[in-house]
Every structure is written in C-alpha cells, then in structure tokens.
Fold this sequence. Notes:
Helix 3 (140-159) packs across helix 4 (175-186) and helix 3 packs across helix 9. Helix content is 29%, strand content 26%. Strands 3, 4, 5, 8, 9, 16 and 17 form a 7-stranded mixed sheet that branches. A 6-stranded parallel sheet has the order 12-11-10-13-14-15, with helices on both faces. Strands 1-2 form a two-stranded antiparallel ribbon. The mean pLDDT is 98. By secondary structure, it is α/β, with parallel strands linked by helices. One zinc ion is lined by residues 38, 40, 61, 87, 148.
Amino acid sequence: MKAAVVVAFDQPLEVIDREIPSPGPGQVLIRMETSGLCHTDIHAAHGDWPVQPAPPFIPGHEGVGIIEELGTGVQNRRIGERVAIPWLGYACGECRYCIDGRETLCEQQLNSGYSIDGAFAEYAVASARFVVPVPDEVTSLDAAPLSCAGVTTYKALKTAKILPSERVAVFGIGGLGHLAVQYARIMGGAVVAVDIDKDKLDIALELGAEQVVNAAVVDPVAAIQALGGVDVALVLAASPMVFEQAFASLKRGGRLVCVALPAEQMMSISIFETVLKGISIIGSIVGTRQDVAEVFALHAAGKTKVIAETRPLADVNLAMKEVLAGHIPARLVFTF
Ligand SMILES: NC(=O)c1ccc[n+]([C@@H]2O[C@H](COP(=O)([O-])OP(=O)(O)OC[C@H]3O[C@@H](n4cnc5c(N)ncnc54)[C@H](O)[C@@H]3O)[C@@H](O)[C@H]2O)c1
Ligand SMILES: [Zn+2]
Ligand SMILES: [Zn+2]
C-alpha cells in the first residue's frame, strides 16, 4: 500500500510502499476512501508539542473507509461496513474517565496518527471498538472532516453550554472554524467570526455568521468590544496571541474555550480580570464516540455543510504547505 510517513520532524513526509497491515485481536483492517488533513497532523509532523510522536509514523485521524477484514474476537463490526478512524484510537474502557463519559481523558488512550499509525495510507488497522460507523447519508468526503474538525468544535461548544441569547466568537475559520460557526448557530448562538483572511470570512458569512472581523485589518478586541463583547470565545487559531485576544473579547461571566494547540505553550491572562469578571477558562479535546455519532447524525439530517477540496496523497507535503499558508477553503481531504 502507499503510505505517507513522517521520517523525521525536520524533513518532508515520504510517500512510500508498505506492507498492508494485518488486524490484530480486536482490530479491523480498513481500506481508506478519504483522509482529512487536520492542522494537528502538521503539528505532529513537526514535533511541535511537549509529548511527541516517535518517527517513523503515519499521521491522519480523519480517515474514512470500508472494513475489509476482522481481527480475532471482533463482534461489533462487519466486513463491508463504512467507518471513521478518529483521533481517539483506543481507550481502556475501565478507568474513571472511560466509565463516566469522558473517554477522551483516559490515561491509557492511544491516538490515531500520533501514538499509533493513522489514516494517511491506503489501508489502516484500527480498534473495532473505537471506529465509528458512518451513516449512508454522509459521503466519505464529508465524513472525513466531521470526524475531527466537526466533533472537536461540536464538543467544545457543547461544553461551553451556549444559551440561545448568547454571542459566540470563533477565532480561526479554517477546517475546525467553518464547522464551529455552524454548530454555534445550531445551538442558538449569534456568531462573530474572526480570521486574517478575507476569503475565510466570506465562508463564515455564507455559513451563518452574523458579524465578521478581519484581524489582519482591525484590532479584533476593539471590534468585538464595540459590539458589546461575547459570552463565549472559541480559539481555533494556533497562536498564544489569539488566546489573549479571545480572552479580552469576553463579557463578564464569559467562557474562553481553548482548542488550538500552538507549539508555543504559554498564554498571558490576567488573574485579576479572570476573577473580577467571573471568567471560565475551558480546555476541550476532540469528543467521544457518541459525540462523533451526533455530528454524523446532524450532517445526515442536512443541518451542516462541509467545505473541502481533495488532493492525492502523493501531494501531502504540498498540501501541508497550502494549509500553513492559510489560503485553502476550510479543509483538504486526501482521496484514494
Ligand atoms: N483540541 C482539540 O481537540 C483539537 C482538535 C483538532 C485540532 N486542534 C487544533 O486546532 C487548531 C486549528 O486546526 P485547523 O485544522 O482548523 O487549522 P486550520 O489551519 O485549518 O485553521 C486555522 C485558521 O486560523 C486562521 N488564523 C491564523 N492566524 C489567525 C489570527 N491571528 N487570528 C484569527 N485567525 C487566524 C487561519 O487563517 C485559518 O483559517 C490547530 O492548532 C489544531 O492542532 C485541536
Ligand atoms: Zn484533528
Ligand atoms: Zn480509560
């Protein structure tokens, strides 16, 4: 099979031939149809974060494909079924977090395309318990971005408990942001979209944002405070400065929801302002299998729209450059 492999953090990925893996006990073999390129894959390939993956590894955690083989003991899936491989590749199922509905916090978890090989390949093996079935009404092209960009922003906004009277700022209208705008609207919020690229802001307006702020042209904090501030600020752009701007855009009682994962770890937030204004700072990591299923169900019901362009896997390095340059509409998806 063809696979895109990170061989070293300072080198381009290599697209090489590899043996098709065999599913171990409890695993399935999936023939990939699509595989989304999340900004996290770029952080992974560059070794940006404090906990690094170990090269050589195959990135990709927005994989969608058909089950071709079942490992021993697999009872819950069948050959021919279409499933998604999300970031949460495995969790123990026994710990406090797994049993109280927070499996994404499991300390034993394995992450697709990071601690285990992911979906930038023609085939992948994955835990039968952690792949998520894709409904017939959702195309494989749409299902790919939904399985990380979708579920992550859906869960982040769910955690923020938006009320229908509230205003929500989404900072960064990329792969995650274009879906965040739609979930915030579905939950009843009025959306202010912030980006540094005008085309991204046009997409946000198309998808239902009420206001847009071009942070390359105006100070987003002043622009949002001129509107009266926001109740929730969701940060999807990988820069500490943007977290600080988002914090400063909040009303009293507001919630800062941290999702982007910049290489630079520290943000500077005033303790005095946090306390006096009663602000909550929330971290949110992807979503559970149930959250993925809910995101698929919303899409199957026609309530969301995925904006994506396809690329061949052979162009993986160019595709990463395009995402970093910030000019692609929403998401790039590899097709096989
Ligand atoms: N917490 C999680 O579970 C989780 C899940 C997936 C991705 N992520 C992280 O979220 C981040 C975003 O991922 P993505 O795939 O949507 O990336 P992306 O590159 O598709 O989107 C980022 C967007 O931010 C915009 N941007 C850049 N600088 C900005 C600025 N100063 N102000 C406003 N907007 C700005 C870009 O123009 C782009 O539209 C990454 O850091 C990724 O690792 C986190
Ligand atoms: Zn992702
Ligand atoms: Zn667990």
